[in-house]
Amino acid sequence: MNEAESRKAEKIRKNARAMRKKRLSKQKQASPLMRFVVTVTSFVFVMYCITSIIMTQAEIAEKKQELNALAEKAEKLEEQNAEYLSILSEEDERAFMERYAVEVLGYAYPNERRFYDTAGK
User: What is the pTM of this model?
Assistant: First the structure.
């Protein structure tokens, strides 16, 4: 090869390198539309995450209220259970039956008189 041909070949290689660099730089740069799509997608994802966190916190608060209500109900049931156990442990069943008849069912002894206030409040 002579010198002219080698210069020509070198020039062609330089042009090819420059064109490859140009193509790569164009490929690396995102188009404005692509940047917009990525930005909008990111924004929507962040909003979804924030909404999800807020909804989860609200659900946690609601479940805590339910837990407190159930704890109160369990406490009342335990008190009632203790009362029933004390009633069952009484040796004198007759006294229990009399008290229940008078207090709950409204029965009275044969010679007993009861007075009720019928005046309006």
Answer: 0.47
